[in-house]
Amino acid sequence: MGSRSSHAALIPDEDSLRRETGFSQASLLRLYHRFRALDTNKKGYLSRMDLQQIGALAVNPLGDRIIDSFFPDGSLQVDFPDFVRVLAHFRPADDEDAGLRDPREPEPLNSRMNKLRFAFQLYDLDRDGKISRHEMLQVLRLMVGVQVTEEQLESIAERTVQEADEDGDGAVSFLEFAKEEEENGSGRQLVVSTTVCLKTQLPGRFLVMVISVWNYWKLLGIITTTAFIILL
Amino acid sequence: MSRRGARGPGWGLLLALLLALGVVPRARGVEEQGGTVQGFQVVTFKWHHVQDPYIIALWILVASVAKIGFHLSHKVTSVVPESALLIVLGLVLGGIVWAADHIASFTLTPTVFFFYLLPPIVLDAGYFMPNRLFFGNLGTILLYAVIGTVWNAATTGLSLYGVFLSGLMGDLNIGLLDFLLFGSLIAAVDPVAVLAVFEEVHVNEVLFIIVFGESLLNDAVTVVLYNVFESFVTLGGDNVTGVDCVKGIVSFFVVSLGGTLVGVIFAFLLSLVTRFTKHVRIIEPGFVFVISYLSYLTSEMLSLSAILAITFCGICCQKYVKANISEQSATTVRYTMKMLASGAETIIFMFLGISAVDPLIWKWNTAFVLLTLVFISVYRAIGVVLQTWVLNRYRMVQLEIIDQVVMSYGGLRGAVAYALVVLLDERKVKEKNLFVSTTIIVVFFTVIFQGLTIKPLVQWLKVKKSEHREPKLNEKLHGRAFDHILSAIEDISGQIGHNYLRDKWTNFDRKFLSKILMRRSAQKSRDRILNVFHELNLKDAISYVAEGERRGSLAFIRSPSTDNMVNVDFSTPRPSTVEASVSYLLRENVSAVCLDMQSLEQRRRSIRDTEDMVTHHTLQQYLYKPRQEYKHLYSRHELTPSEDEKQDKEIFHRTMRKRLESFKSAKLGINQNKKAAKLYKRERAQKRRNSSIPNGKLPMENPLHNFIIKEKDLELSDPEEAPDYEAEEMSGGIEFLANVTQDTATDSPSGDTGSDAPLTGRSSPPAAAEKPPAARAPSQPGPAACDPAPPTPVPAPPTPAPARQTTPRTLSRGRGLRRGRGWSAAGCRVRTRVRRRRAVCTAGARSSGPARAAAPRCSSSRLCRRRATRRRTRWSRRRRRCDGCPRALHVVPSTAWSRGPPVRGLE
Hints:
The longest helix of chain A is centred in the C-terminal third of the chain and has 15 residues, at 150-164. Chain A is elongated. Chain A is mainly alpha-helical. Chain A has helices spanning 3-10, 14-21, 25-38, 48-52, 55-58, 63-70, 80-88, 112-123, 133-143, 150-164, 174-184, 186-193, 205-215, 217-231, and strands at 46-47, 77-78, 130-132, 171-173. By secondary structure, chain B is mainly alpha-helical. Chain B has three domains: 2-35 and 45-79; 110-462, Na+/H+ antiporter like fold (Up-down Bundle); 523-560 and 582-590 and 642-853 and 882-899, no CATH class. In chain B, 72% of the residues lie in helices and 0% in strands. A two-stranded antiparallel ribbon of chain B has the order 1-2. The interface between A and B is large, with 89 and 96 residues.
């Protein structure tokens, strides 16, 4: 498709973005399309409301927390680079070149630690670097059904914090959080299942063709009639 | 099903039963044959008169009863797939019949199969197809369906031919083309069998849709290959020219695309027809079946792929049909479709078994049979691996080894192959019987053996991947959280590819198709609900903030405990105390169950452990499942599980409330000096509201409405992505809105009760059913009923800041959705207290709603405007744009309160 290159040119600062996030050009392009699609008024940035429009997020218990994570420090808009940077956390971590990486370079966004940090920040509402019992309770409350009573929740939160809390300050620090995840492997789960994310744009021209045929049923009609004529 | 050799007497067994039952005297004059009988006979026995339909009905009955029987033992059905059981049952029954009769009277004939049994199954598959998933994986599905099937057919046929040439099979009157013909009919994975088995094996949705879609779409390939090779066989191997081959390839495109086209055209027709069935509700469901069936027959007539036609008819029409037809009709359609499909499937498998008991068709050739089995399994595996290897380079969701194993192993053959092979002409294909018996063996092997083993296999593979151990609390919680995060990120990044095309399609759909195919009421309310919701929230928030501002106590908005309040208690909206207490009891029971478990284990565990276990248990039970896990897939035998909807509902409520909250706090700084007027009145209303809380007066009405409304919104909330599996629920919402709009338009507030029933909808049926009258009844008498102890200076409830209280309550009540902050703060606080008390208290809190509504506010003016315009049957475009949207939403909640007394009073 010719539109490919022209669109690509539209992405501001593409090269550096690619380097920073590790996304391929195709992925970036796809994300850019997505970004544009989400951007309802074509204002060039996304507002909170744009993200809230995504219906599936409304039924995701952590949906709003995640939306919030796109708007750090109370900003009201997120532009494309920032948008991509957030999503870059979820790229599959490339293990193979971990050793080869220049230690002076900042850790890539999709590294394990950064993934965990991202998750951690979803818990840590007040950004004090600790998940307090209260914060844990809030997350819990988001994530369990209404059948569970407040008391139960509190005790669960208490326990969860206790379980991970090593230095006994009644809160989970990031290190404790990371360690916990390290042990349980659910951190790995986050990483592994993210393979899903953002590999490449579907290049299957075949697919695109099929769907455009499906879209433009006129064309479909023409093909069918021609085929009939040939047959007859 | 159909009979060869109509020999009733052979039916000793059934006849006995029939005689026992059927000799009920019937006072009916019967004309007698000849003059043999003199006079009038009170009772005559006319077996031959009813024979055929009677036997058919009996067979259906037997199959259905057998199904009941299977499910008596849960253990059996959880291990052995139903299809296998049915086949075995068929074999047994066939054996009995044959023993009694020595003739195979009943077989599954291609006519019956293709004309009556297959269409309902495929239509069902199409109509309930999770569209988004299907089209999201269309490329993969097509590849497997087309290339995979061709590959299977070619390799199987050629390999068999090769072995045949080597002489291993002995002497057979068979040529290359015959082998290819056989290969083509045995190659196709069968939709009936695959579904029957896969439904019980819980694989992930992508895998499911791929195998399922493949089995549906490969029909075109099978039909074409079959026809091509059959005609080649007829022509004779030497007469086949290159032109014929080219024609064969062309015919593939014609057959598949043509079939699809026929399906789409009929879907269009169907949608169009259902748009105008408003006055013939009762036959609405009939259209769905008849027109879909016509699409099947039409494409059969044109020798196109009938399966594709009816599949796509179902796929394409579902969205519009569900939007157009009434709630009851939708339910009827769903149930009828499931019933037909499930019944047809049962019959198919049973008759597969019965058909096998016929010595005439058996011709055994060990080498041929065994090699066929080996080849189809091996080549399927090879094909899957090769194709997956190619696909994985392009797919975002990789198909892993485990998926490939399941896919290869799940390639079940079924009745389609059998029907096709029976269709063969014995004069042209000399070894037809060998083919038939081999096909039967293959079908039985795949359905019974593979069906039996696939479940353990999947489990075993999965277990191998992650060894089992008791997870820690943190792990459980965080793991779940990560799942949620991931699915949210996927949603944000538009995980499922080709959004560009999808967006285009959505546009096209919205601009043209929906306009033509959907009722006006349905299309109007269909999209942008969420937008409107936000708009409303915005207005709401502004006024709310202004109010709080005025009172100078805004701390509550910023207070960290906002979150607590946000997550308060969605179960409070209850229609009545009775229900509230019932649910209370239920809830208590739930925990009682936990406790029981606990006490059971207690002997063995320390207290600490026990606590742990309870906690785990609670978490396990109540953690919300991530989207991928619970979004249920197509299932032939079950209708939507309500659990998931409930979860969606809950989360949606929370999210919306929370957003509103944060929105308010965001707006806080901005709108400082708005609406300073009407201070006094509001304050008064405020007081009154507070005062009514401890009163504990039960409102009985609105909460449910509130509830329903929200949930409808939820269903509609995703206009862009919904038209798929959620479309089903969507219809409820649309219908609901449609009815409301209609209601409004005709200005018959208490008018047609007919529209009320659909309105209250399916999702909370028991409560909803009785809702409308209940809501209305108490509300008619006037404000007094709901607001009994108005300005009396009752001591404020245990809640501290009055301001805080105002917040939430507003919305839960009379204002309905418009005040989206529906839960009550009072509820939240009380919640932590005694539970029993809570039910009452929140109810009481709610009762204050109408009182609040009585306070003149901006809403009232809006309301009046709405009412004024209501009479117009048509909305001008402009109106729709500027007023319609808010209205659409407005209307939604308004059902709750527009009928209520306060509003009335205002008017």
